[in-house]
């Protein structure tokens, strides 16, 4: 069957395109065509796989060189694609495709473009290989490929502030993570004498001894570094901030997903430890801490991309929390949020890239008022910001709503008030997210336009097109949550709980029963309430329409236009009246408000009688009331994120030590 | 003999981590990464080693259930791992050179523009 | 045929009751009563009760000025969307036994819909480019943050208590919450819910931005903050939005804590002929709802307005995250252990 070959072809397309760009990439057209094909072909292949895997529930097991298992032992290297793998694969392929489209115009001013595309495609291939792989060592190789590519891309614009530094920190801590994965892999091999997922998944649940549990801890920490879960979050912030925007999309939307995928695969399928209350507790705890710490860190940032990077980890925290609940609704909602995270975070990073592309800075203190110069980007940004803050009817709301219900349901089922606290943390984090996006909106897109950005233009169509795709997806997945849950997240969640099917598909049916394993976890997706965004949106639209009609018929805007065309000065207007008595009147004599300049005076901002000056309320000036109450916390966090690579490495080592200790205790 | 190998490999890994955490010099950090890598390589090789086994070179006809040889898979893994280790070193050294050019120092305490 | 009647019914819901017209009339009336009450408490004569209506129509006739620095589309659309969201929210809140849109009436949805009007004001203010508006929106966002935590806890406490009563463990549906109270008596009569009710009473002035929690639109310091640049019809829409918010918050309180009164009404009309009973019950319920709203506004908005001075924004935040949150948390814990 042809379809068996699709996964390997999808992976190879990326690597082949990367190779061909090295060889033929001098010419821009050839390069762009290769890049386009290299990302479009895998996307098509994976979409073709959607029907058999997501709807018909098949699992594709592919043995390289057709070395099928003999005597119950997997000898060859395998690819295995189940619904979870394909779900992540589709996400990745989509994000990568859009980022590639965006790169065509965004990177066109950089030198060394061929190298950029090569690294870009290597990174894509690495992530795709990771999620479709059925072999632990293969997974490690892919982790290394993507780490290298990500580090190199972070430092790609090596003259940018902090790029090299970020790349080095990422390399050091990323390598500690990769080494953990390798050590874990080899320890599992020593116990099970196999590297194949299916065989490991059959062997491990009945053989939890000291060595396998230490391996578990090592692998877990390794994947945490890839997903930037809490002790590793500063790396994400550094790397995203310095990397070019499309690469930020890859790091936040794609690379973190590979870490999440690893954690899910590890805890649910390989070790099946999710029925242990302590493991659930730790996942939820780590998720909630990531969620909260990163959103507060984001509030304190004054760089657009760095702020987005912290949000990225905060949203990953939601996913981990939901996945750690170990209920069908929890996993399904977590995957839903993972998908939404890729979409809206990709969109936001691309918007930040657009701002950087046009103005040359992402410093929130220097920007302002860009909505007048870049109206389309502003609209796209607002869609992304509403999505991430969970404003209905955008997609963030649909998934967060499911997560709240999942956590609350878990709290009720388990009778533990701790999970209730998690619900509260989720809800408050969501509002804090909204707050920091209000800050970005005010300090980048609204407010007053600084003089130096007076001739800023809208970004080229190619970039807007890429952003538009993501914005459209954000809206569609928000409007049709039923479709998404039925066809995407629920099959994937079933695959998460269906480890036996995974084993049997690869090793032959009945293999899992031979080890005395049974899928015990019930898979029911009972929702607590019904959210029908369509009816809600209809209501809102009808209402807005009604209000608008009433408003327009009552000369909502008409008078203003008339006044702008005719010149007589309406002195009754308080603003103009006070302005006329300005103390600066001599310097700026009467004609200022005479016929020709009437509009100027009248339509200027109100300054209570002072002369109007440039006065933007920037990002650092916002939310004083909040920051003041939390000042000790903020200064503590600021001290903690010292920027010294040794400290971050120390956090990694401590996390590793704790995880190993913990693994030994729960044994 | 085997036990000594295990002890040595864990010692190397811990030494590497210690070096990364404690030494405030970029070069030493890179060295720490390498040491950690060697430790893992030693671990892999040790796991595949069977005392008294022969080299795992057989044709299909020669392979019988009684043949006793060292496990070839870890050796293949080690080769891959060594290659990756070399890449890590090369890449980190390249970054160190550029960092030194830009910051004028290799002290990690000075290279902290991104923080907070 | 049924489609047309259904459509007409829904249109009536949206435009007349409990939608636009009802919101407009009762919201404005509440606003007028509030102003009158405050004036009387301060020994002033005060404006007539219908003053908000006069203000509204007068503002509609005034010129609309869009500042040159503003993003015109956002500046003009924000008030409209905010008002629309506010009215939609009102549609989701059941009036005792009557509910216009049952399926979507969910506590968490309501929580998020409450954000949209605030967000629209914030965006409108941001788009004006005025520094006063900038300061104002920063404070408004902090107020929203401050109110959010206790509000979440209040809603969770209610959801848990009702869930216990219904035996489902948790209940997020507002219609079910009201129905449960109509059968088992108002929640406020339970000891465990009293702290939550008090917290909710304190949340009402915070959400509506009235004294002493009006740092966001402090007229004396930042010239009404977010509304500094608004004039004419958009300003009128904002004033209307604010009035509707008064109604929404008080009816939400009624739905969450005083739903049992609906049961009393049902008993009262049960002796009448069935053909009459339904109609009379609804009329009675609307009247009771409005009277309750007046009482709640008098207690939470007018009285506090008259006796307090404005809090600074960081004091406001601290107040909500300590005192009010503490009250709500007590309720959550009590409800959790089934008291």
Question: Counting H and I runs of at least 4 residues, what is the number of helices of chain A?
Answer: 27
Query: What global shape of chain B is seen?
Result: elongated
Distance between the termini of chain B: 49 Å
- The portion of residues assigned to helices of chain A is over 70%
Name the poorly predicted regions of chain B: none
The oligomeric status of these chains comes to heterotrimer
Largest sheet of chain B: none
User: From N to C, what is the helix and strand string of chain A?
Assistant: HHEEHHHHHHHHHHHHHHHHHHHHHHHHH
Q: Mean pLDDT score of chain B, rounded?
A: 85
Radius of gyration of chain B equals: 20 Å
Fraction of residues in helix of chain B: 55-70%
Overall, the morphology of chain A is globular
Task: Evaluate the radius of gyration of chain A.
Answer: 27 Å
Distance N terminus to C terminus of chain A? Answer: 44 Å
Order of helices and strands of chain B: HHH
Structural class of chain B: mainly alpha
Question: Main traits of this protein?
Answer:
heterotrimer; A: 667 residues; mainly alpha; 2 domains; two-stranded antiparallel ribbon; 1% strand; C: 339 residues; 0% strand
What does this structure look like?
The complex is a heterotrimer of chains A (667), B (116) and C (339). Chain A is built from 27 helices and 2 strands. Chain A is mostly helical. Chain A folds into 2 domains: 558 residues, no CATH class; 100 residues, no CATH class. A two-stranded antiparallel ribbon of chain A has the order 1-2. The longest helix of chain A has 32 residues. About 6% of the residues of chain A have low confidence. Chain B is elongated, with a radius of gyration of 20 Å. Helix content of chain B is 66%, strand content 0%. Chain B contains 3 helices and no strands. Chain B has 116 residues and is an all-alpha fold. In chain B, helix 1 runs antiparallel to helix 2 and helix 2 runs antiparallel to helix 3. Chain B has a single domain, classed as Helix Hairpins, CATH 1.10.287.3510. By secondary structure, chain C is an all-alpha fold. Chain C has 13 helices and no strands. In chain C, helix 3 packs antiparallel against helix 10, helix 4 runs antiparallel to helix 5 and helix 11 runs antiparallel to helix 12. The model of chain C has no long low-confidence stretch (mean pLDDT 81). Chains in contact: A-B, A-C. At the A-C interface, helix 14, helix 15, helix 16, helix 21 and helix 22 of A face helix 4, helix 5, helix 6, helix 10 and helix 13 of C.
């Amino acid at each position: 069957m042809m379809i068996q070959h699709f996964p390997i072809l999808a992976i190879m397309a990326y690597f082949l395109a990367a190779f061909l760009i090295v060889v033929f990439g001098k010419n821009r057209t050839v390069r762009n065509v290769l890049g386009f094909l290299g990302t479009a072909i895998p996307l098509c292949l994976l979409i073709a796989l959607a029907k058999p895997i997501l709807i018909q529930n098949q699992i594709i097991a592919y043995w390289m060189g057709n070395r099928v298992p003999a005597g119950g032992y997997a000898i060859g290297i395998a690819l295995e694609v189940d619904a979870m793998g394909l779900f992540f694969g589709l996400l990745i392929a989509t994000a990568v495709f859009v980022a590639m489209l965006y790169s065509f115009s965004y990177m066109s001013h950089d030198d060394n473009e061929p190298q950029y595309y090569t690294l870009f495609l290597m990174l894509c291939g690495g992530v795709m290989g990771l999620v479709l792989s059925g072999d632990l060592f293969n997974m490690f190789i892919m982790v290394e490929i993507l780490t290298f590519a990500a580090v190199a891309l972070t430092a790609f614009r090596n003259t940018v502030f902090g790029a090299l530094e970020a790349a080095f920190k990422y390399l050091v801590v990323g390598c500690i993570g990769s080494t953990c994965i390798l050590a874990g892999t080899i320890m599992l091999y020593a116990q099970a004498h196999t590297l194949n997922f299916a065989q490991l998944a059959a062997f491990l649940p009945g053989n939890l001894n000291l060595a396998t549990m230490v391996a578990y801890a090592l692998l877990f920490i390794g994947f945490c570094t890839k997903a930037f879960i809490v002790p590793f979050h500063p790396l994400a912030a550094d790397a995203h901030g310095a990397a070019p925007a499309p690469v930020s999309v890859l790091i936040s939307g794609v690379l973190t997903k590979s870490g999440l995928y690893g954690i899910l695969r590890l805890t649910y399928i390989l070790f099946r430890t999710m029925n242990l209350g302590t493991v659930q507790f730790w996942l939820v705890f780590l998720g909630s801490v990531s969620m909260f710490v990163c959103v507060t860190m984001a509030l304190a940032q004054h760089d657009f991309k760095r702020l987005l990077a912290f949000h990225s980890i905060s949203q990953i925290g939601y996913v981990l929390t939901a996945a750690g609940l170990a209920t069908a609704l929890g996993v399904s909602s977590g995957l839903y949020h993972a998908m939404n995270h890729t979409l809206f975070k990709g969109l936001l990073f691309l918007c930040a890239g657009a701002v950087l592309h046009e103005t040359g800075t992402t410093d929130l203190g220097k920007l302002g008022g860009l909505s007048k110069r870049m109206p389309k980007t502003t609209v796209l940004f607002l869609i992304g910001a509403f999505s991430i803050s969970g404003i209905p009817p955008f997609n963030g709301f649909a998934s967060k709503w499911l997560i709240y219900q999942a956590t609350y349901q878990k709290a009720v089922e388990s009778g533990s008030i701790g999970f209730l606290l998690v619900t509260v943390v989720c809800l408050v984090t969501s509002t804090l997210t909204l707050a920091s996006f209000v800050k970005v909106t005010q300090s980048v897109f609204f407010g007053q336009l600084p003089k130096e950005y007076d001739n800023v233009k809208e970004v080229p169509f190619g970039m807007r097109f890429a952003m538009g795709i993501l914005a459209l997806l954000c809206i569609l997945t928000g409007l049709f949550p039923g479709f998404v849950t039925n066809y995407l997240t629920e099959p994937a969640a079933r695959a998460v709980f269906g480890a036996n099917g995974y084993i049997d598909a690869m090793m032959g049916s009945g293999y899992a029963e031979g080890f005395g394993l049974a899928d015990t976890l019930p898979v029911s997706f009972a929702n607590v309430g019904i959210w029908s965004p369509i009816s809600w949106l209809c209501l809102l639209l009808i209402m807005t329409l009604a209000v608008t009609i009433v408003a327009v018929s009552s000369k909502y805007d008409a008078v203003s236009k008339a006044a702008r065309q005719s010149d007589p000065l309406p002195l009754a207007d308080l603003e103009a009246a006070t302005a006329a008595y300005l103390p600066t009147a001599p310097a700026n004599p009467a004609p200022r408000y005479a016929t020709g300049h009437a509009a100027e005076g009248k339509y200027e901002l109100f300054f209570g009688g002072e002369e109007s000056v440039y006065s933007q309320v920037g990002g650092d000036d916002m939310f004083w009331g909040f920051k003041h109450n939390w000042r000790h916390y903020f200064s503590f966090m600021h001290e903690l994120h010292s920027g010294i690579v040794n400290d971050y490495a120390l956090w990694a080592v401590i996390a590793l030590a704790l995880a190993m200790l913990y693994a030994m205790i729960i044994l | 003999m085997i036990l000594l190998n295990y002890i040595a490999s864990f010692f190397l890994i811990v030494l590497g981590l210690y070096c990364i955490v404690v030494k405030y010099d970029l070069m030493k950090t890179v060295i720490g990464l390498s040491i950690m890598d060697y430790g893992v390589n030693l671990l892999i090789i040790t796991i595949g080693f069977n005392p008294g086994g022969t080299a795992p070179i057989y044709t299909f006809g020669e392979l019988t259930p009684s043949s006793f040889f060292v496990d070839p898979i870890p050796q293949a893994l080690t080769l891959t791992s060594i290659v990756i280790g070399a890449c890590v070193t090369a890449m980190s050294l390249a970054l160190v050179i550029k960092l030194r050019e830009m910051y004028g120092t290799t002290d990690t305490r000075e290279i902290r523009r991104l923080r907070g | 045929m049924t489609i047309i009647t259904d459509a007409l019914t829904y249109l009536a819901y949206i435009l007349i009751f409990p939608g636009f017209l009802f919101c407009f009339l009762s919201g404005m009336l509440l606003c007028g009563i509030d102003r009158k009450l405050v004036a009387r408490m301060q020994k002033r004569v005060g404006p007539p009760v219908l003053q908000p209506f006069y203000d509204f129509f007068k503002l509609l006739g005034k010129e609309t000025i869009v500042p040159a620095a503003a993003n015109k589309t956002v500046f003009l659309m924000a008030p409209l969307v905010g008002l629309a969201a506010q009215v939609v929210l009102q549609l989701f809140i059941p009036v005792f036994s009557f509910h216009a849109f049952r399926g979507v009436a969910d506590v968490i949805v309501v929580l998020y819909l409450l954000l949209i009007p605030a967000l629209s004001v914030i965006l409108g203010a941001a788009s004006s480019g005025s520094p006063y508006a900038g300061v104002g929106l920063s404070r408004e966002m902090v107020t929203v943050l401050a109110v959010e935590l206790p509000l979440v806890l209040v809603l969770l406490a209610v959801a848990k208590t009702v869930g216990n009563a219904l035996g489902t463990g948790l209940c997020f549906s507002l219609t079910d919450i009201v129905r449960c109270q109509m059968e088992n008596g108002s929640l406020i009569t339970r000891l465990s819910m009293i702290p939550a009710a008090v917290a909710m009473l304190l949340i009402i002035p915070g959400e509506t931005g009235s004294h002493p929690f009006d740092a966001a639109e402090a007229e004396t310091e930042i010239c009404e903050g977010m509304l500094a640049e608004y004039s004419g019809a958009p300003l009128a829409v904002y004033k209307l939005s604010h009035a509707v918010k008064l109604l929404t918050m008080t009816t939400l309180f009624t739905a969450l804590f005083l739903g049992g009164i609906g049961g009393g009404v049902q008993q009262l009309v049960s002796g009448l002929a069935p053909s009459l009973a339904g109609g009379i019950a609804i009329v009675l319920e609307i009247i009771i709802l409005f009277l309750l709203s007046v009482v709640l506004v008098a207690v939470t908005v007018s009285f506090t307005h008259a006796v307090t001075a404005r809090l600074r924004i960081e004091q406001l935040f601290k107040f909500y995250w300590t005192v009010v949150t503490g009250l709500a948390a007590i309720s959550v814990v009590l409800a959790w252990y089934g008291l």
